[in-house]
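Subject: two folds for Thursday's group meeting

Dear M.,

Sorry for the delay on this. The cluster queue was jammed most of the week, so I only got both jobs back this morning. I'm pasting them in the order they finished. Each block is the input sequence followed by the predicted structure tokens. Could you check whether the formatting survives your parser before we put anything on slides? The first protein is the one we discussed after the seminar.
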Amino acid sequence: MALSISLAVLLAVIVFVLLRGGHLKVWPAIAAILFGFFLASTEVAPTITKAVQSATGAISAIDF
């Protein structure tokens, strides 16, 4: 059975759990989110996207 979930949704859930658990404070989380938005508008964004796609492709090829 294959499960498909957006990486953005998965990361949002992780941030939410870390915030609720007290392992991550609000201001550092906001700073990290803003960093991600600004990073997405730079010229390095396609390289990061390709790397994430390669990693997720390699993970999905693993048979459990």
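Second protein, same layout:
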Amino acid sequence: MTRADPDAGDRHGPGTYVPEGLPVLLLRRPAPVLLRRWYTEIVAYDERAGCPIRQIESASLTVPVIISLGEPFRIGLGRQPGDDDARPSFASGLSSERIYIGSSGRAACLQINLTPPGARRLLDLPVSALTGAMIPLEDCADGEVLDFKKRVEDLTDWESRLDLAEAFVLHRLTSAVDGTPQVVHAYRRIVGSGGQAGIAAIGEEIGWSRKHLSLKFREEIGLPPKTVARIARFTRAQTLARFEAAPDWADIACDCGYADQAHMIREFGTFAGLAPRAWRASLDTFGIATW
């Protein structure tokens, strides 16, 4: 399970990798440029270790749809998961909490990483219905999505599964409609600016008051625009630092629009649970923090 950004200078392409000595198959299909406003990538993830693997995912603006094809992940929102936290195929909305993931070393999944507007199109429901939760696909998807899930499960090789997923995602995304245009515009302006566009200014662009924008935005996206802006800024800081051997944190704080480096450190604590240097040191060879 991974939400790594394919635009973040990721050094891994398709292939088999060994994070901390544990073999994992990771295949990625980045979204075509014209579709990236709706999804970023489709991932095949297949653990072949047979011993426990643990990951931490920071808060992000990704809405994942997971089709489990092995033993289910154990997932805890803002806490380490227990034995009762097994999650088979599900969709998960936005959250400001970090996510703790544990597996037996035999987990496998097909994962579609959607933007909130893309999740609205693919699942045909407001993303707020998924906020801070992991909802079984049977409880949040229609018959067409569940039929796609079954066809993925019936296939036996990853490339065929990825081909099927790409075709299905293209069909669903291009045949559906967006949510409220003003909300979609506001979301894209916030994310496109790396969280630095003013919420009041965006409201003026669409002819809404800040209060009305915040209300409608939260109804459809699941988090307030200010929180989405904070996560967008934090995500950009991660992207700038992720593959630098010695990140200049002061420059990153300035580039991302933080008031100062102390402000950035506080935000890393909120969304990653670690100070920036500790977060950077925690990354394994996949670029994913572990616990």
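Two things I noticed about the second structure. The chain has a mean pLDDT of 90. The chain has two domains: 15-175, 181-282.

Cheers,
T.
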